[in-house]
Protein backbone atom coordinates (compact mmCIF):
# COMPACT_ATOMS: atom_id res chain seq x y z
CA UNK A 1 0.00 0.00 0.00
CA UNK A 2 2.76 2.32 0.99
CA UNK A 3 4.53 1.46 -2.21
CA UNK A 4 1.44 2.20 -4.24
CA UNK A 5 1.10 5.56 -2.55
CA UNK A 6 4.70 6.31 -3.37
CA UNK A 7 4.12 5.43 -6.95
CA UNK A 8 1.01 7.56 -7.16
CA UNK A 9 2.88 10.45 -5.63
CA UNK A 10 5.66 9.96 -8.09
CA UNK A 11 3.28 9.99 -11.01
CA UNK A 12 1.46 13.03 -9.66
CA UNK A 13 4.68 14.89 -9.03
CA UNK A 14 6.38 14.12 -12.32
CA UNK A 15 4.70 16.88 -14.33
CA UNK A 16 5.53 19.39 -11.60
CA UNK A 17 9.15 18.31 -11.65
CA UNK A 18 9.20 18.51 -15.40
CA UNK A 19 7.65 21.97 -15.35
CA UNK A 20 10.27 23.29 -12.97
CA UNK A 21 12.98 22.53 -15.52
CA UNK A 22 12.69 24.56 -18.73
CA UNK A 23 11.40 22.21 -21.40
CA UNK A 24 12.93 23.08 -24.77
CA UNK A 25 10.55 24.73 -27.19
CA UNK A 26 9.32 22.52 -30.02
CA UNK A 27 11.18 23.24 -33.27
CA UNK A 28 7.91 24.20 -34.93
CA UNK A 29 6.98 26.76 -32.27
CA UNK A 30 6.53 30.38 -33.38
CA UNK A 31 8.09 31.31 -30.03
CA UNK A 32 11.46 30.29 -31.47
CA UNK A 33 11.55 33.87 -32.71
CA UNK A 34 13.51 35.89 -30.13
CA UNK A 35 11.60 39.19 -30.26
CA UNK A 36 10.30 41.62 -27.65
CA UNK A 37 6.91 43.32 -27.73
CA UNK A 38 5.54 46.40 -25.94
CA UNK A 39 1.91 46.23 -24.85
CA UNK A 40 -0.82 48.84 -24.36
CA UNK A 41 0.44 49.57 -20.84
CA UNK A 42 4.01 50.13 -22.05
CA UNK A 43 5.16 46.81 -20.59
CA UNK A 44 7.93 45.01 -22.47
CA UNK A 45 7.60 41.27 -22.75
CA UNK A 46 9.23 38.48 -24.68
CA UNK A 47 7.08 37.02 -27.50
CA UNK A 48 7.95 33.60 -26.04
CA UNK A 49 6.49 34.57 -22.66
CA UNK A 50 3.03 33.96 -24.17
CA UNK A 51 3.91 30.28 -23.88
CA UNK A 52 1.87 28.27 -21.41
CA UNK A 53 -1.56 29.28 -22.65
CA UNK A 54 -3.52 28.74 -25.85
CA UNK A 55 -3.39 31.96 -27.87
CA UNK A 56 -5.42 33.55 -30.62
CA UNK A 57 -3.04 35.82 -32.57
CA UNK A 58 -3.67 38.33 -35.35
CA UNK A 59 -1.80 41.24 -36.89
CA UNK A 60 -3.40 44.67 -37.28
CA UNK A 61 -2.69 48.39 -36.95
CA UNK A 62 -4.66 50.99 -35.03
CA UNK A 63 -5.13 53.62 -37.74
CA UNK A 64 -6.75 51.04 -40.01
CA UNK A 65 -10.21 52.07 -41.17
CA UNK A 66 -11.67 49.02 -42.83
CA UNK A 67 -10.43 45.52 -42.23
CA UNK A 68 -8.81 45.89 -38.79
CA UNK A 69 -12.03 46.66 -36.91
CA UNK A 70 -13.20 43.46 -38.56
CA UNK A 71 -10.22 41.60 -37.10
CA UNK A 72 -11.28 42.71 -33.60
CA UNK A 73 -14.88 41.73 -34.45
CA UNK A 74 -13.65 38.31 -35.52
CA UNK A 75 -11.76 37.80 -32.26
CA UNK A 76 -14.82 38.84 -30.29
CA UNK A 77 -17.03 36.58 -32.36
CA UNK A 78 -14.82 33.60 -31.56
CA UNK A 79 -14.84 34.59 -27.89
CA UNK A 80 -18.65 34.64 -27.80
CA UNK A 81 -18.77 31.02 -28.94
CA UNK A 82 -16.79 29.84 -25.93
CA UNK A 83 -17.94 28.83 -22.46
CA UNK A 84 -16.58 30.93 -19.57
CA UNK A 85 -14.17 28.10 -18.71
CA UNK A 86 -12.90 27.88 -22.29
CA UNK A 87 -12.56 31.65 -22.47
CA UNK A 88 -10.45 31.64 -19.32
CA UNK A 89 -7.97 29.30 -21.01
CA UNK A 90 -7.51 31.57 -24.02
CA UNK A 91 -5.24 34.57 -24.53
CA UNK A 92 -5.82 36.97 -27.43
CA UNK A 93 -2.87 38.87 -28.85
CA UNK A 94 -3.10 41.52 -31.56
CA UNK A 95 0.34 42.40 -32.92
CA UNK A 96 0.79 45.71 -34.71
CA UNK A 97 2.41 45.87 -38.15
CA UNK A 98 2.78 49.65 -37.65
CA UNK A 99 4.89 49.96 -34.47
CA UNK A 100 6.10 53.48 -35.29
CA UNK A 101 2.60 54.81 -34.79
CA UNK A 102 1.17 52.11 -32.53
CA UNK A 103 2.50 53.43 -29.24
CA UNK A 104 1.03 52.19 -25.94
CA UNK A 105 -1.33 55.20 -26.02
CA UNK A 106 -2.58 54.30 -29.50
CA UNK A 107 -3.06 50.68 -28.46
CA UNK A 108 -4.86 51.72 -25.26
CA UNK A 109 -7.31 53.79 -27.27
CA UNK A 110 -8.39 50.67 -29.17
CA UNK A 111 -8.73 48.66 -25.95
CA UNK A 112 -11.02 51.37 -24.59
CA UNK A 113 -12.94 52.05 -27.79
CA UNK A 114 -13.60 48.39 -28.47
CA UNK A 115 -14.18 47.58 -24.78
CA UNK A 116 -11.69 44.74 -24.81
CA UNK A 117 -11.36 42.59 -21.69
CA UNK A 118 -7.81 43.18 -20.48
CA UNK A 119 -7.81 39.83 -18.72
CA UNK A 120 -7.71 38.18 -22.11
CA UNK A 121 -6.74 40.75 -24.75
CA UNK A 122 -3.27 42.12 -25.25
CA UNK A 123 -2.40 44.63 -27.96
CA UNK A 124 1.31 44.98 -28.61
CA UNK A 125 3.95 46.32 -30.97
CA UNK A 126 7.24 44.64 -31.90
CA UNK A 127 10.21 46.82 -32.78
CA UNK A 128 9.97 48.06 -36.39
CA UNK A 129 12.83 45.81 -37.52
CA UNK A 130 11.07 42.69 -36.20
CA UNK A 131 7.64 43.10 -37.79
CA UNK A 132 8.38 41.13 -40.95
CA UNK A 133 9.78 38.21 -38.95
CA UNK A 134 6.72 38.03 -36.70
CA UNK A 135 4.58 38.20 -39.84
CA UNK A 136 6.80 35.51 -41.34
CA UNK A 137 6.15 32.93 -38.64
CA UNK A 138 2.42 33.72 -38.76
CA UNK A 139 2.23 33.62 -42.56
CA UNK A 140 1.01 37.21 -42.90
CA UNK A 141 1.92 39.24 -46.00
CA UNK A 142 1.74 43.03 -45.84
CA UNK A 143 2.94 46.18 -47.56
CA UNK A 144 3.07 49.72 -46.24
CA UNK A 145 1.22 52.05 -48.61
CA UNK A 146 2.26 55.59 -49.44
CA UNK A 147 -0.65 57.07 -47.46
CA UNK A 148 0.23 55.25 -44.21
CA UNK A 149 -2.31 52.48 -44.65
CA UNK A 150 -1.25 48.87 -45.15
CA UNK A 151 -2.21 46.29 -47.68
CA UNK A 152 -2.26 43.02 -45.75
CA UNK A 153 -3.62 39.56 -45.30
CA UNK A 154 -6.04 39.29 -42.38
CA UNK A 155 -5.87 36.07 -40.46
CA UNK A 156 -6.61 34.65 -37.04
CA UNK A 157 -3.99 32.13 -35.98
CA UNK A 158 -4.58 29.65 -33.15
CA UNK A 159 -1.48 28.64 -31.19
CA UNK A 160 -1.24 25.82 -28.68
CA UNK A 161 0.42 26.44 -25.32
CA UNK A 162 3.82 25.80 -26.89
CA UNK A 163 3.32 28.14 -29.81
CA UNK A 164 2.58 25.57 -32.48
CA UNK A 165 0.04 26.66 -35.08
CA UNK A 166 -3.12 24.59 -34.64
CA UNK A 167 -5.47 26.38 -37.00
CA UNK A 168 -5.82 29.50 -39.07
CA UNK A 169 -8.63 31.34 -40.76
CA UNK A 170 -8.78 34.24 -43.17
CA UNK A 171 -12.57 34.52 -42.88
CA UNK A 172 -13.16 37.79 -41.07
CA UNK A 173 -16.29 39.31 -39.58
CA UNK A 174 -18.88 38.74 -36.90
CA UNK A 175 -19.90 35.38 -38.37
CA UNK A 176 -17.04 33.20 -37.16
CA UNK A 177 -15.57 30.42 -39.26
CA UNK A 178 -17.18 27.31 -37.69
CA UNK A 179 -14.19 25.05 -38.30
CA UNK A 180 -11.90 27.56 -36.66
CA UNK A 181 -14.22 27.95 -33.66
CA UNK A 182 -14.26 24.17 -33.27
CA UNK A 183 -10.46 24.18 -33.19
CA UNK A 184 -10.41 26.91 -30.53
CA UNK A 185 -12.96 25.03 -28.40
CA UNK A 186 -10.99 21.85 -28.73
CA UNK A 187 -7.74 23.59 -27.75
CA UNK A 188 -9.32 25.29 -24.74
CA UNK A 189 -11.33 22.28 -23.54
CA UNK A 190 -10.61 21.37 -19.94
CA UNK A 191 -8.22 18.61 -18.94
CA UNK B 1 50.39 18.72 -38.36
CA UNK B 2 49.73 21.84 -36.41
CA UNK B 3 50.41 23.90 -39.48
CA UNK B 4 47.93 21.83 -41.43
CA UNK B 5 45.30 22.42 -38.78
CA UNK B 6 45.99 26.14 -38.86
CA UNK B 7 45.67 26.14 -42.63
CA UNK B 8 42.42 24.25 -42.50
CA UNK B 9 41.09 26.80 -40.05
CA UNK B 10 42.18 29.62 -42.33
CA UNK B 11 40.33 28.39 -45.38
CA UNK B 12 36.77 28.93 -44.17
CA UNK B 13 37.77 32.24 -42.58
CA UNK B 14 39.26 33.47 -45.82
CA UNK B 15 36.10 32.43 -47.61
CA UNK B 16 33.99 34.42 -45.18
CA UNK B 17 36.14 37.52 -45.44
CA UNK B 18 36.06 37.48 -49.22
CA UNK B 19 32.29 37.13 -49.17
CA UNK B 20 31.87 40.03 -46.79
CA UNK B 21 34.13 42.38 -48.75
CA UNK B 22 32.78 41.71 -52.17
CA UNK B 23 30.13 44.39 -52.53
CA UNK B 24 29.51 46.74 -55.44
CA UNK B 25 28.41 50.29 -54.71
CA UNK B 26 25.23 51.44 -56.40
CA UNK B 27 24.43 55.15 -56.56
CA UNK B 28 20.65 54.83 -56.44
CA UNK B 29 18.40 57.57 -57.77
CA UNK B 30 14.95 57.71 -59.29
CA UNK B 31 13.81 54.38 -60.61
CA UNK B 32 10.61 53.38 -62.33
CA UNK B 33 9.58 49.91 -61.21
CA UNK B 34 7.86 47.51 -63.59
CA UNK B 35 5.31 46.88 -60.85
CA UNK B 36 2.16 48.88 -60.69
CA UNK B 37 1.12 50.10 -57.30
CA UNK B 38 -2.13 51.99 -56.95
CA UNK B 39 -0.69 54.13 -54.19
CA UNK B 40 2.68 54.84 -55.75
CA UNK B 41 2.83 57.15 -58.71
CA UNK B 42 5.94 58.13 -60.63
CA UNK B 43 9.48 57.08 -59.88
CA UNK B 44 10.72 55.48 -56.68
CA UNK B 45 13.67 57.03 -54.90
CA UNK B 46 16.43 54.45 -54.30
CA UNK B 47 19.03 55.47 -51.71
CA UNK B 48 22.68 54.63 -52.42
CA UNK B 49 23.43 51.07 -51.31
CA UNK B 50 25.96 48.27 -51.61
CA UNK B 51 25.06 44.89 -53.09
CA UNK B 52 27.04 41.65 -53.12
CA UNK B 53 28.58 41.18 -56.54
CA UNK B 54 27.63 37.49 -56.54
CA UNK B 55 24.98 35.36 -54.86
CA UNK B 56 26.06 33.65 -51.62
CA UNK B 57 27.75 30.32 -52.37
CA UNK B 58 27.53 26.93 -50.69
CA UNK B 59 31.04 27.41 -49.27
CA UNK B 60 30.10 30.75 -47.73
CA UNK B 61 26.87 29.40 -46.31
CA UNK B 62 28.69 26.38 -44.89
CA UNK B 63 31.07 28.69 -43.02
CA UNK B 64 28.04 30.49 -41.58
CA UNK B 65 26.33 27.26 -40.53
CA UNK B 66 29.53 26.14 -38.81
CA UNK B 67 29.81 29.37 -36.85
CA UNK B 68 26.06 29.45 -36.05
CA UNK B 69 25.07 25.80 -35.61
CA UNK B 70 21.47 26.69 -34.84
CA UNK B 71 21.20 27.07 -38.62
CA UNK B 72 22.35 23.49 -39.31
CA UNK B 73 19.61 21.59 -41.11
CA UNK B 74 19.37 19.11 -38.21
CA UNK B 75 18.98 21.85 -35.59
CA UNK B 76 17.14 24.67 -37.28
CA UNK B 77 13.74 25.58 -35.86
CA UNK B 78 11.01 24.32 -38.20
CA UNK B 79 9.29 27.69 -38.13
CA UNK B 80 12.39 29.16 -39.80
CA UNK B 81 13.05 26.50 -42.41
CA UNK B 82 10.99 23.70 -43.88
CA UNK B 83 12.30 20.09 -44.08
CA UNK B 84 13.91 20.60 -47.51
CA UNK B 85 16.27 23.24 -46.06
CA UNK B 86 19.82 22.43 -47.28
CA UNK B 87 18.58 18.94 -48.14
CA UNK B 88 20.96 18.73 -51.14
CA UNK B 89 24.00 18.91 -48.85
CA UNK B 90 25.54 15.57 -48.07
CA UNK B 91 25.24 16.16 -44.32
CA UNK B 92 24.38 18.90 -41.86
CA UNK B 93 27.90 20.33 -42.04
CA UNK B 94 29.35 19.10 -45.34
CA UNK B 95 28.52 19.97 -48.95
CA UNK B 96 29.06 16.86 -51.10
CA UNK B 97 28.67 16.27 -54.83
CA UNK B 98 25.28 17.95 -55.22
CA UNK B 99 26.44 21.18 -53.62
CA UNK B 100 29.78 22.36 -54.98
CA UNK B 101 31.54 25.11 -53.02
CA UNK B 102 31.23 27.77 -55.73
CA UNK B 103 27.64 27.04 -56.69
CA UNK B 104 25.08 29.47 -55.27
CA UNK B 105 23.46 28.16 -52.11
CA UNK B 106 19.82 27.19 -52.67
CA UNK B 107 17.20 25.43 -50.51
CA UNK B 108 17.52 28.29 -48.05
CA UNK B 109 14.57 29.97 -46.39
CA UNK B 110 14.02 33.71 -46.06
CA UNK B 111 14.73 33.43 -42.33
CA UNK B 112 18.07 31.71 -43.01
CA UNK B 113 19.00 34.28 -45.66
CA UNK B 114 18.16 37.07 -43.22
CA UNK B 115 20.28 35.48 -40.50
CA UNK B 116 23.20 35.05 -42.89
CA UNK B 117 23.16 38.70 -43.94
CA UNK B 118 22.75 39.84 -40.35
CA UNK B 119 25.88 37.86 -39.47
CA UNK B 120 27.75 39.91 -42.14
CA UNK B 121 26.39 43.16 -40.68
CA UNK B 122 24.27 43.36 -43.79
CA UNK B 123 20.65 42.81 -44.78
CA UNK B 124 18.70 41.43 -47.71
CA UNK B 125 18.06 43.93 -50.50
CA UNK B 126 14.56 45.32 -50.85
CA UNK B 127 12.61 44.38 -53.97
CA UNK B 128 13.09 47.92 -55.33
CA UNK B 129 16.85 47.70 -54.85
CA UNK B 130 17.00 44.29 -56.50
CA UNK B 131 14.89 45.34 -59.47
CA UNK B 132 16.96 48.52 -59.85
CA UNK B 133 20.25 46.58 -59.88
CA UNK B 134 18.81 43.97 -62.25
CA UNK B 135 17.65 46.54 -64.79
CA UNK B 136 21.25 47.01 -65.95
CA UNK B 137 23.09 45.07 -68.64
CA UNK B 138 26.86 45.10 -69.14
CA UNK B 139 27.00 48.69 -70.34
CA UNK B 140 23.69 50.40 -69.55
CA UNK B 141 22.15 51.06 -66.16
CA UNK B 142 18.68 50.61 -67.58
CA UNK B 143 18.54 48.17 -70.47
CA UNK B 144 14.93 47.20 -69.96
CA UNK B 145 13.66 48.79 -73.16
CA UNK B 146 16.00 46.71 -75.29
CA UNK B 147 14.10 43.74 -76.75
CA UNK B 148 17.34 41.83 -77.39
CA UNK B 149 18.31 42.05 -73.74
CA UNK B 150 14.86 40.98 -72.61
CA UNK B 151 15.03 38.05 -74.95
CA UNK B 152 18.36 37.00 -73.49
CA UNK B 153 17.02 37.02 -69.95
CA UNK B 154 13.89 35.16 -70.91
CA UNK B 155 15.88 32.38 -72.48
CA UNK B 156 17.03 31.33 -69.02
CA UNK B 157 13.49 30.91 -67.80
CA UNK B 158 12.81 28.46 -70.58
CA UNK B 159 15.68 26.18 -69.49
CA UNK B 160 14.57 23.12 -67.58
CA UNK B 161 15.32 23.76 -63.91
CA UNK B 162 16.55 20.26 -63.12
CA UNK B 163 20.04 20.90 -64.53
CA UNK B 164 22.95 21.47 -62.17
CA UNK B 165 23.47 25.12 -61.27
CA UNK B 166 26.48 26.92 -62.73
CA UNK B 167 29.12 28.40 -60.47
CA UNK B 168 28.64 32.00 -59.38
CA UNK B 169 30.63 34.74 -61.10
CA UNK B 170 30.73 33.21 -64.59
CA UNK B 171 28.57 35.91 -66.14
CA UNK B 172 29.95 39.29 -67.17
CA UNK B 173 29.37 41.98 -64.51
CA UNK B 174 26.59 44.48 -65.22
CA UNK B 175 27.13 48.25 -65.37
CA UNK B 176 27.32 48.36 -61.55
CA UNK B 177 29.75 45.44 -61.31
CA UNK B 178 27.07 43.02 -60.10
CA UNK B 179 26.91 39.50 -61.52
CA UNK B 180 24.37 36.71 -61.86
CA UNK B 181 21.23 38.75 -61.22
CA UNK B 182 19.65 36.92 -64.12
CA UNK B 183 20.14 33.45 -65.40
CA UNK B 184 21.34 31.64 -62.29
CA UNK B 185 18.95 31.55 -59.33
CA UNK B 186 15.91 33.32 -57.93
CA UNK B 187 16.77 35.56 -55.00
CA UNK B 188 15.06 36.43 -51.74
CA UNK B 189 14.36 40.07 -50.96
CA UNK B 190 13.87 41.51 -47.49
CA UNK B 191 10.31 42.52 -48.31
CA UNK B 192 9.33 39.49 -50.41
CA UNK B 193 6.16 39.18 -48.34
CA UNK B 194 5.05 42.66 -49.36
CA UNK B 195 4.54 41.43 -52.91
CA UNK B 196 0.83 40.96 -52.55
CA UNK B 197 -0.29 40.22 -56.02
CA UNK B 198 -3.63 38.82 -54.98
CA UNK B 199 -4.78 42.13 -53.50
CA UNK B 200 -5.52 42.02 -49.81
CA UNK B 201 -8.50 39.90 -48.98
CA UNK B 202 -10.38 39.94 -52.19
CA UNK B 203 -10.15 36.17 -52.49
CA UNK B 204 -11.25 35.24 -49.00
CA UNK B 205 -10.46 31.71 -47.98
CA UNK B 206 -8.95 30.99 -51.35
CA UNK B 207 -5.77 33.02 -51.12
CA UNK B 208 -3.46 30.11 -51.86
CA UNK B 209 -4.99 29.57 -55.26
CA UNK B 210 -5.01 33.23 -56.11
CA UNK B 211 -1.46 34.01 -55.08
CA UNK B 212 0.48 32.58 -57.97
CA UNK B 213 -0.50 32.78 -61.62
CA UNK B 214 -2.51 35.37 -63.45
CA UNK B 215 -2.87 37.69 -60.53
CA UNK B 216 0.70 38.88 -61.13
CA UNK B 217 -0.34 40.70 -64.28
CA UNK B 218 -2.70 42.88 -62.29
CA UNK B 219 0.11 44.73 -60.66
CA UNK B 220 2.47 44.91 -63.61
CA UNK B 221 2.99 48.29 -65.20
CA UNK B 222 5.06 46.77 -67.94
CA UNK B 223 3.39 43.62 -69.19
CA UNK B 224 6.23 42.85 -71.56
CA UNK B 225 8.70 42.56 -68.71
CA UNK B 226 8.05 38.86 -68.15
CA UNK B 227 11.30 38.32 -66.28
CA UNK B 228 10.24 40.68 -63.50
CA UNK B 229 6.72 39.30 -63.58
CA UNK B 230 8.00 35.77 -63.02
CA UNK B 231 10.24 36.86 -60.15
CA UNK B 232 7.31 38.57 -58.47
CA UNK B 233 5.03 35.61 -59.04
CA UNK B 234 7.64 33.33 -57.49
CA UNK B 235 8.35 35.52 -54.47
CA UNK B 236 4.69 36.17 -53.83
CA UNK B 237 3.95 32.45 -53.75
CA UNK B 238 6.44 31.61 -51.01
CA UNK B 239 6.30 31.63 -47.23
CA UNK B 240 9.24 32.78 -45.15
CA UNK B 241 10.17 29.21 -44.16
CA UNK B 242 9.95 27.81 -47.71
CA UNK B 243 12.97 26.71 -49.71
CA UNK B 244 13.30 25.73 -53.38
CA UNK B 245 16.01 24.18 -55.54
CA UNK B 246 16.46 27.50 -57.39
CA UNK B 247 16.04 30.09 -54.65
CA UNK B 248 19.20 31.71 -53.33
CA UNK B 249 20.07 35.20 -52.13
CA UNK B 250 22.69 37.92 -51.80
CA UNK B 251 23.05 40.62 -49.15
CA UNK B 252 22.94 44.40 -49.29
CA UNK B 253 24.10 47.26 -47.08
CA UNK B 254 23.18 50.89 -46.64
CA UNK B 255 25.82 53.32 -47.86
CA UNK B 256 26.46 56.22 -45.56
Q: What do you see in this structure?
A:
The complex is a heterodimer of chains A (191) and B (256). With 191 residues, chain A is an alpha+beta fold. Chain A has a single domain, classed as Glutaredoxin (3-Layer(aba) Sandwich). In chain A, the strands form two sheets. A seven-stranded mixed sheet of chain A has the order 2-1-5-4-3-8-9, sandwiched between helices. In chain A, strands 6-7 form a two-stranded antiparallel ribbon. The relative contact order of chain A is 0.20. The N terminus of chain A is likely disordered. By secondary structure, chain B is an alpha+beta fold. The longest helix of chain B is centred in the first third of the chain and has 20 residues. About 14% of the residues of chain B have low confidence.
- The CATH topology label of chain B is paralog of FGE (formylglycine-generating enzyme)
In DSSP terms (H or I, runs of 4 or more residues), the helix count of chain B works out at: 8
Number of strands of chain A: 9
Question: What is the fold-level CATH name, i.e. the topology of chain A?
Answer: Glutaredoxin
Low-confidence stretches of chain A: 1-19
Amino acid sequence: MKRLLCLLLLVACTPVLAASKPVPLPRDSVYQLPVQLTDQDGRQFAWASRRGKVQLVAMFYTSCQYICPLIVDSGKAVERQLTPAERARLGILLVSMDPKRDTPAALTSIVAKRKLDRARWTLASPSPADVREVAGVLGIRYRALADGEFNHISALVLLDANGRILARTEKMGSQPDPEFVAAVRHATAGP
Amino acid sequence: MRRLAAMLLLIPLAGLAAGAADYAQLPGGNFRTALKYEDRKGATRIAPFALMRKPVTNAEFLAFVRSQPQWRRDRVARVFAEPRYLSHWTSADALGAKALPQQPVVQVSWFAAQAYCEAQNARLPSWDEWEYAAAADETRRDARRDPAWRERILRWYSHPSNQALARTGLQAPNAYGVQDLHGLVWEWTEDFSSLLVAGDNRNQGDADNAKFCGAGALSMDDRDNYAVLMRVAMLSSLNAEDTTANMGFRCAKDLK
